[in-house]
Design goal:
The structure is a homodimer of 266-residue chains. In chain A, 23% of the residues lie in helices and 31% in strands. The first copy, chain A, is α+β, with helices and mostly antiparallel strands. Chain A has 2 domains: 2-107, Aminotransferase class 4, branched-chain amino acid transferase, N-terminal domain (D-amino Acid Aminotransferase, Chain A, domain 1); 119-265, D-amino Acid Aminotransferase, Chain A, domain 2. Chain A is globular, with a radius of gyration of 19 Å. In chain A, the strands form 2 sheets. In chain A, strands 8, 9, 10, 11, 12, 13, 14, 15, 16 and 17 form a 10-stranded mixed β-sheet that branches. Chains A and B meet through strand 3, helix 1, strand 6, strand 7 and helix 4 of A and strand 3, helix 1, strand 6, strand 7 and helix 4 of B. Strand 3 of chain A pairs antiparallel with strand 3 (12-14) of chain B.
Chain lengths: 266, 266
């Protein structure tokens, strides 16, 4: 593992950083394959959009690109980038001229263990609060996910689906979700909460290219009982079939393997 | 300003700290008056409760008490304490044996400027998402407050009231709120969101002692049009009268001055 803080090899961050005080930051987790950062442009695009929505000064995207590429290893791994609003005076009020802190953490292994036969998924009790101002962003105020992920630690479940406070399906704790209902793929809208994942975008683009675009809309929990297939996506796992949802068996969908093959050839 | 990290004079925190990655922490801001930490027991009680709810190991309260007292200056000031879940492996999942990080920041001045004639308060556009799992906690996933506080920066407004996503009044960006409606004080319930402030508790206890306990219940935004007085509370400002709410003038209530006098004599 290698850590860069503001471009320098350093293992620590100022104790007055607003990322630490208020979760006032954003992050990206990028997969490294054959020494290349997968979907780098889309990650940077989402980051820049998030920084704009939070009122951060715009990032130096060329500089970031160079720094991330330099941090990525030669083979397969992962790079995490955190950008906070930086050090600020006391109080929630953002400094007028924020100087964001950037933290790059590079791992020489992807660090994900995937069951060969597909994921076993259950339901989390903790729900996601709705807040359009933050919806879609991969920000660092993530206590809801932390509490949800703390709900299981044994071997009978790989991921947990989360509902929002109105009872709609939003995502898994660290992945987006697609359900095949009837002949169509459906993925929850993320205008109230949830993270608009880069792999969610990739799977949607790919499905569109196949002539079977996913429908983005609110999804009630009960609808998943009718789903014939369920898929979780994130930057590191790609798209993974769910083989069991709360005890009910599901079949792998051919789209999952086809997308996986496409992803490998990228 | 003096900073202690895990009891040592140090100005930085590990770049892998979960407080930085996920807002996985809690904080307390304590007022120092005449060299004493005001309501120290209540702050520690709230912290311990928050740590329990987030699944942190229990704090060493005696050690914390000593450390905070040592950090407080001789006169008037403030001490901020942050406790994060500490350094952990990748992912939201909390480590089984977390070793929390504690950060103590001591200021030699209270650092609050209060207008002599009472506060001018408006409404924030950003709303608070509802999440019972986090409601009441003074946690460090605070992007909602950051965005709300970024809505104004000129001289015509001192604080902003926040609604939750269902349109109920919850609090100001960094203070709790009490409204006198009819003959009674009313304060919003915090079972869906908001921070259960220590000064809120103090004002409630004091009101109870006066034989006029505040009613804690959901408060619709429209009800504040009927309020004859409005008060904001937090650990540093005590209880402050609002002199103007969105352009409407309000009278100071005698309870505010009486409580302020009681607070001074503590």
């Amino acid at each position: 593992m290698r850590i860069l803080v503001d471009g320098q090899p350093r293992e620590s961050v100022g104790a007055l950083d607003r990322g630490l005080h208020y979760g006032d930051g954003l992050f990206e987790t990028l997969a490294v394959r054959h020494g290349r950062l997968r979907f780098l442009d889309w990650h940077l695009e989402r980051l820049a959009k998030g920084m704009r929505r939070l009122g951060f000064p715009p990032p130096d995207l060329d500089g970031l690109r160079t720094e991330l590429a330099g941090a990525a290893g030669e083979g397969a791994g992962a790079v995490k980038l955190i950008v906070t609003r930086g050090i600020g005076p006391r109080g929630y009020r953002p400094p007028r001229e924020a100087r964001p802190t950037r933290i790059v953490i590079a791992y020489d292994a992807p660090g994900v263990e995937l069951p060969a036969k597909g994921l076993r998924v259950g339901w989390c009790r903790v729900r996601l609060g709705r807040n359009p101002a933050l919806a879609g962003l991969k920000h660092t105020s993530r206590l809801e996910q932390v509490l949800a992920r703390a709900e299981w630690d044994d071997g009978h479940m790989d991921e947990g689906l989360m509902l929002d406070t109105e009872g709609r399906v939003i995502s898994a704790t660290q992945a987006n979700v697609f359900a095949r209902i009837g002949s169509r793929w459906v993925t929850p809208s993320l205008d109230g909460c949830g993270v608009a994942g880069v792999m969610r975008r990739a799977f949607r683009e790919w499905l569109k290219g196949q002539g079977n675009p996913a429908e983005e809309r609110p999804v009630a929990a009960a609808e998943l009982a009718e789903a014939t297939a369920l898929v979780l996506t994130n930057a590191l796992i790609g798209a993974q079939a769910v083989r069991e949802l709360a005890g009910r068996g599901l079949e792998p969908d051919p789209d999952v393997a086809a997308f996986g093959g496409w992803l490998e050839r990228l």
